[in-house]
Amino acid sequence: xxxxxxxxxxxGRFPAGGHAHSGGAEAAVKAGRITGADSLESFCRGRLxxxxxxxxxxxxxxxxxxxxRLLDEAADARTPSPAxxxxxxxxxRQLMRAxxxxxxxxxxxxxxxxxxxxxxxxxxxxxxxxAAGLEAVDAAYCAAYESVSGPSSATVRLxxxxxxxxxxxxxxxxxxxxxxxxxxxEAARRVADEGVDALPSASxxxxxxxxxxxxxxxxxxxxx
Amino acid sequence: MHLDHHHDxxxxxxxxxxRPDGTRRALRIGLGGPVGSGKTATVAALCRALRDELSxxxxxxxxxxxxxxxxxxxxxxxxxxxxxxxxxxxxxxxAIRDDISANLEAVEDLEDExxxxxxxxxxxxGDNLTATFSKGLVDAQIFVIDVAGGDDIPRKGxxxxxxxxxxxxxxxxxxxxxxSDLARMAADAKAQRAELPVVLQSLRSEAGVTDVADxxxxxxxxxxx
Lengths: 224, 225
Ligand SMILES: Nc1nc2c(ncn2[C@@H]2O[C@H](COP(=O)(O)OP(=O)(O)OP(=O)(O)O)[C@@H](O)[C@H]2O)c(=O)[nH]1
Ligand SMILES: [Mg+2]
Known about the structure:
- Chain B: It is found in: Cytoplasm.
- By secondary structure, chain A is mainly α.
- Chain A contains eleven helices and no strands.
- In chain A, 70% of the residues lie in helices and 0% in strands.
- Chain B has helices at 39-50, 67-74, 92-98, 101-114, 153-156, 159-163, 175-178, 182-193, 210-223; strands at residues 27-32, 56-62, 83-87, 119-123, 140-146, 166-170, 198-200.
- Chain B has a seven-stranded parallel β-sheet with strand order 3-2-4-1-5-6-7, sandwiched between helices.
């Protein structure tokens, strides 16, 4: 295995469609919930401990070999908003293309065949990590990090926020990222014995509601 | 990449010239250029000129609205199921060059849902002079500038002006009103582009999009085996 593959997979420039999504930041900016670096940090912390934790555990479970179909159903069950489910599948489909080009694997081919319109992104992320020879902890970190890096870079564009402030937010959240990745990995290990119900189901109602409102806007910069 | 030519394999990867079922995919032509230069108007005119002889579809990349797609729908240049809008997250050049996944998905879905198609036109959101399409997304690209954006744009060059497969200098009807020197624009473009073609057009004139439609037909003839 090459640990450096994690850098390729987690790179914000990995061409998997993420640049067009704000992770809920656009809706939160419009609603006045993100107005600067401090409120961006609160938003990211909330997302990390809810959607981020769930994604992280899903991705880690996929690396451990849990059936991706079960994980995809578990992701659906943990995503009340239809708009967010659509976005997660779109991103999963886009990640699938980049992952298959980067780390060709029969497992990825099989998943692409089974979900031609996309499986939930964290599930694809886990299988991509597996195809790259990475470990469950790597996928857990990658998913947790993406849950905050997306909103942060989107907010730089939405508010013309100082990019150094936005990066500072991510750096300050690092110790919490460690803890979330640990918890996600622990849950993923339990899934092997106890089934997908052992996955966390932390939810952020405002993210779900905001996503539904956002999907109905006629004019917006980001797809979600 | 030529990984999948069989019907039991999943979707193709970017520039593959064949669809998963082994048939040759549609020719994809990108249209880029600065805001308001006439990309959508050219797409609309091309659809009108070519729709009776070709099976066509369009992908638009609006920056923050669905205006281009809605204009094409309102003008009824094609049936609605042949027009798809991609959202670009405030970065139109990223969506056509650095991370083309959403656009690839749009062209593949169009071929699956309304195909077989001969030609897909992909319009970029209005952007700067350095914005070009990835070869993984399109087979040929057109860069559209206009006379009203300043007659020194061909001289300034940049990747769009110098490397596009076709350069359109649009809105020549406005040249007298904005004091643009068409002869100079043509000469500067020639100097930047050597043998690559340049079309000066006015969509308000009778000839309209004729020259560009002929160029598209020639691209298609070269693409179809
Ligand atoms: N006079 C004149 N106007 C034109 C011509 N071509 C386009 N226009 C007008 O120019 C304006 C902008 O044209 P669009 O086709 O929307 O330009 P665009 O490049 O698609 O713009 P964005 O997508 O916003 O970047 C419209 O009002 C068109 O009617 C032309 O040849 N002559
Ligand atoms: Mg346009």
